[in-house]
Amino acid sequence: MAINLKELSKQEDLFVSGHRACAGCGPAIAVRQALIAAGKDTVVGFATGCMEVVSTIFPYTAWNVSYIHSLFENVGATVSGVEAAYKALKKKGKIKKNINLIAFGGDGGTYDIGLQSLSGAMERGHNMLYICYDNQAYMNTGIQRSGATPHGANTTTSPSGKVIAGKTQWRKDITEIMAAHNIPYVAQASISDWKDYMGKVEKALSIEGPKFIVVFAPCQLGWYYQKEDTIKIADLAVKSRFWPLYEVENGVHKITKDPKNVIPVEEWLKLQGRFRHLFKDENKKIIEEIQNEVNARWEKLKKLEEAGI
Amino acid sequence: MKVVAKTANEAMAEAMRQINPDVVAAYPITPSTEIVQLFSQFVADGLVDTEFVPVESEHSAASACTGAAAAGARVMTATASQGLALMNEVLFVTPALRLPIVICVINRTLSAPINIHCDHSDTMDQRDTGWMQFYAENSQEAYDLVIQAMKIAEEAFLPAMVSADAFILSHSLERIEILEDKEVQNFIGEHKTPFSVLDTEHPITVGALDLQDYYFEHKRAAAQAMREARKEIKKVFKDFGQKFERNYDFVEEYKMGDAERALVLMGSTAGTAKEVVDNLREEGEKVGIVKVCTFRPWPVEEVNHALKGADFVAVMDRAEGMTGFGAPLFTEVRSSLYDEDKNPDVYGYVYGLGGRDVTPDDIKKVFDDLKKAESGEKLERNSYLGVRE
After folding, report:
1. Count of alpha carbons within 13 Å of A167, Cβ hemisphere only?
2. Which of A11, B89, B261, B323 could tie B370 with a disulfide, CB 3.0–4.6 Å?
3. Under an 8 A CB cutoff, do A69 and B207 touch?
4. How confident is the model at residue A2 (pLDDT cuts 50, 70, 90)?
């Protein structure tokens, strides 16, 4: 499928309206875009989380593809099992067609509680795509910090208070953790750059073996911004280089979007209530630290790309 | 039929080979490691068609098995002790989704203190998950029950665990009779699946969110499935007995005909206890054994029927239960008998924890205690056998 608006407008939606996601939900966009790219012959596995909860309130379902949810931390293993069954049944001729297997997890189910299950699934080489919709905290339980929560962010378990200014630790780099598994395809994407993201999903599904994509999916409820600004927030994360778009194909890093007019990270931070406390005089040095971190990560990424590794 | 010498680990692995499941996802743990090793070798030697998934934990083993079963595959695994405990969260999901998986369990105690030897605390810990549970007395039963459990699970659309005692059975060579591969295949038949997520022509949502308005009805339906599994168990046991002349039932009554004093127990200790009963019978004592083979679903009718004539009963638990009153088998047996017109006097004994040996003298002591009770002496309602107080 050519990924352009004309072509996309003809595609059937496989994650459909009626789900209970909030207005302006980034993850719902991430799921919908991925499924349009994947097509009908797809089986989706889902970790417990926002998107699982809002999409399958019995007796309703928002899924027009087969879907399985088991628990929070085990979607990597659950889809490993589906894939093993697929291989076994295909070998016996009981299944004829080619089926895409996609496991979805939020950042909680991916960076933290489900990391072992994901790592195992990737190491074993199952032919599946894992997509992490990253909204940078445990949103389903009410905005608690995760390993994906950025430095300085206010969450309900890393609150900004009189002596501590939000999360004191730095974010895990899940993309590089997955790249270190030496799997054929790893990518970082954003819902703001739908063509880039859907192209990555399509490319990943065309490759045999384990694949991983982390897609930046803002949460208006947990990040405290206006509902209509979800795509803008995602876009500015890319433009500030806070969230670089890149892929690691067969171990080679390639930046897929080098933003032209780079904005200071402060411009992105200031639109979100979760960083509001950083703009107090006593906390401004944290913004500087975040900018330094963004610069360092970008420089490292550039070096990897230039070195062709 | 072939006569061979096999440990319970080998016997269960052999049953798995003959079943030839579509998917096995497993993680090694003492003392069930050997089952997984042997099965891996079957895969490596091309003796099975199975997709073997060497997962990174038992939680993932149970998760992958559940995913594979939901995708329409015939699925098995093996584990013990901490492995089964780590599976616990997933074990509630499998029966709720009505997926027929079989786990070969080697009964080993749970930490702490860490100990690799036999007791039933691992499977007792899983008794409320909704899995059927079958306990083997010896390698032969372990082998036969694995084959039957596969068929029962697929008929009842419920998962099952078959357990055998750590080391006492898992690592002891015994004479067993093995069926032909073809006989096993014919007996279990084609795999039946209630649904498959891989049927992309008919997309389904598995594992939906159930709130206050539906959860209870779905739980109720799963509970009903456990009740109705009795029929499938009965049918499969009968069919197996007719075909292969080895007979199984929910409980085995041993010399219970005129028995006034009886022990109720599970697993390998039944073998020891039967010998004690034989010796006491020679001395004219009216004693017998009720061995519980099917623990889930709980065979209330069969247990009560078996104990109908007994006046004094000792229930022997190889698990503590930590209730502050009585261990699991004791409380179930005593509660079952409550509705009977004539209730025997029931005592509980916890024995053999952490692999503590159980000798014929220990068993005889329990029968002696029951005799004391018969002559009017007051016994502790619940006590321990073979522990240093």
Report:
1. 24
2. B261
3. yes
4. confident
Q: Which domain holds residue A281?
A: 5-306
Distance of CA A291 to the CA centre of its chain: 22
CA distance A232 to A2: 25
Residue A239 · residue A263 · CB < 8 Å = yes
What ipTM was predicted for this assembly? 0.97
Round the CA-based radius of gyration of chain A to a whole number and report it. 19
What confidence score (pLDDT) does residue B192 get? 78
Kindly provide the b/e burial profile for residues B64-96, where b requires at least 16 CB atoms within 10 angstroms of the residue's own CB: bbbbbbbbbbbbbbbbbbbbbbbbebbbbbbbb
Gap from A93 CA to chain B (nearest CA, Å): 12
Domains annotated for chain B, with CATH where assigned, are 2-244 (3.40.50.970), 251-385 (3.40.50.920)
Q: What is the mean pLDDT of residues A75-79?
A: 98
Is the CB of residue B86 less than 8 Å away from at least one CB of chain A?
no
| pLDDT confidence of residue B298 | 98
Instruction: Check B68 against A68: CB less than 8 A apart.
Output: no
Q: With CB atoms and an 8 Å threshold, state whether B53 touches A124.
A: yes
* DSSP letter assigned to residue A111: I
Counted across chains A and B, CB pairs separated by less than 8 A come out at: 168
Yes or no, beta carbons of A68 and B207 under 8 Å apart: yes
Burial of B204 (0-12, 13-18, 19+ CB in 10 A): middle
Using a CB-CB distance cutoff of 8 angstroms, which residues of chain A are in contact with residue B200? 40-43, 65-66, 97, 99
Taking CA–CA distances from B209, the nearest residue in chain A reads A57
**B198–A contact, CB cutoff 8 A:** yes
Going through chain A in order, the beta strands assigned E by DSSP cover 42-46, 66-69, 100-106, 129-134, 185-190, 211-216, 245-249, 252-257
Confidence grade of residue A3 (pLDDT, cut at 50, 70, 90): confident
Asked if A88 and B65 come within 8 Å (Cβ–Cβ), the reply is no
Contact residues, chain A, for B199 at CB < 8 Å: 66
CA nearest neighbour of B148 among B162, B138, B137: B162
Number of domains in chain A: 1
Question: What tens digit of pLDDT does each residue of B321-335 get?
Answer: 999 999 999 999 999
Residue A1 pLDDT > 90, yes or no? no
Average pLDDT over residues B233-239: 98
Cα angle A22, A24, A30; round to 5: 95
End-to-end CA distance of chain A: 29
| A contact residues 60-99, partner B, Cβ 8 Å cutoff | 61, 63-71, 73-74, 76-82, 84-89, 91-92, 94-95, 97, 99
CATH code of A184's domain: 3.40.50.970
Hey, are the CB atoms on B60 and A41 less than 8 Å from each other?
no
Contact A140/B at CB under 8 A? no
Average pLDDT over residues A98-109: 98
- pLDDT tens digit sequence for B105-155: 999 999 999 999 999 999 999 999 999 999 999 999 999 999 999 999 999
pTM for this prediction? 0.97
